[in-house]
Design a protein that fits this description.
Elements lengths: L1 H5 L10 H7 L6 E5 L8 E3 L7 E5 L8 H11 L7 H24 L26 H13 L6 E4 L8 E6 L5 E7 L10 H16 L3 E3 L2 E3 L3 H7 L5 H26 L1
The structure holds zinc ion.
Length: about 260
């Protein structure tokens, strides 16, 4: 009860991040650094699953109240979900923590407002298609080919769209997220599972094998990429299927569209 007044009327210097980490015995799990150029949000870096993470905060969070610092620490130490059942739980927890931190940030006089940031939550639960759920496809390909190490936000492209692609976006907290969009033409009952898996595998490779600069040009589908792509067990069936069947689906879709008009 005393602590609720402390937020608006700080009687004590709020504990530093280091002190808080020390008190919770987390000094080996997390380091906190300030980035003066960070204008909005905050982010966490973790090079490996079990190494020390680094929480990067903008200057205006250094003197945040203890509750907000605790929320930031908890946010930075959220576990990477290894099971699908855990994903939702962790996502909800993350969202609650972010709300708490933003409430504070938006109360600051120099309003560091969130702007047109990408909110992955808006796509939550929209991965189910006619026959297949992109989340389920992603998880199974992730397990089989990437040791379950990749993470991405998934969405269907608009109806009839022909291109699947991977982009990087920045979410509300300032964290970079990988977004995979699967072409709308793949969302048809006639599309076999291996084809969706193959296109998903291709987009996931863009996360695993980022583009490299060569002679000033961005090489996206380089030699390493092409070799990795062939590791997909039904790669050739997929290529053949795209040539023979996908074009038919696209043609049929066009005529259906014309009739509908
Ligand atoms: Zn590609």
């Amino acid at each position: 009860m005393e602590s609720s007044t402390q937020l608006s009327l700080p009687l004590f210097e709020p504990l530093s991040f280091d002190k808080l980490l020390e008190r919770r015995n987390l000094s080996h799990d997390l380091a906190v650094t300030v980035n003066r150029r960070l204008k909005r949000g905050w982010r966490v870096i973790f090079p490996h699953l079990n190494s020390t993470r680094t929480l990067i905060i903008p200057p205006y969070l250094i003197d945040a109240p203890e509750e907000v610092k605790t929320a930031l620490i908890d946010w930075a130490l959220l576990p990477c979900p290894r099971r699908r059942t855990k994903v939702r739980e962790i996502r909800q927890r993350r969202s609650l923590l972010e709300q708490e931190i933003w409430r504070y940030v938006e109360s600051l006089p120099c309003a560091h407002r969130r702007t047109a940031r990408f909110d992955p939550q808006t796509l939550h639960g929209k991965t189910a298609g006619h026959t297949f759920d992109l989340r389920e496809i992603f998880d199974s390909v992730n397990d089989r080919y990437f040791n379950g190490s990749l993470q991405a936000v998934l969405r269907w492209g608009s109806e009839g769209s022909k291109t699947s692609f991977h982009t990087k976006k920045t979410d509300l907290a300032g964290t970079h997220v990988d977004v995979i969009t699967i072409a709308g033409v793949y969302n048809f009952p006639e599309v076999p599972r291996f084809a969706i898996e193959a296109v998903m595998h291709h987009e996931m490779l863009h996360i695993a094998i980022p583009p490299v600069k060569r002679n000033g040009r961005n090489v996206i589908h380089g030699r390493e990429f092409a070799a990795a792509e062939r590791r997909f067990s039904q790669f050739h069936e997929w290529q053949q299927w795209e040539r023979e069947c996908l074009t038919k689906i696209i043609r049929r879709m066009k005529s259906r569209h014309k009739r509908g008009r």
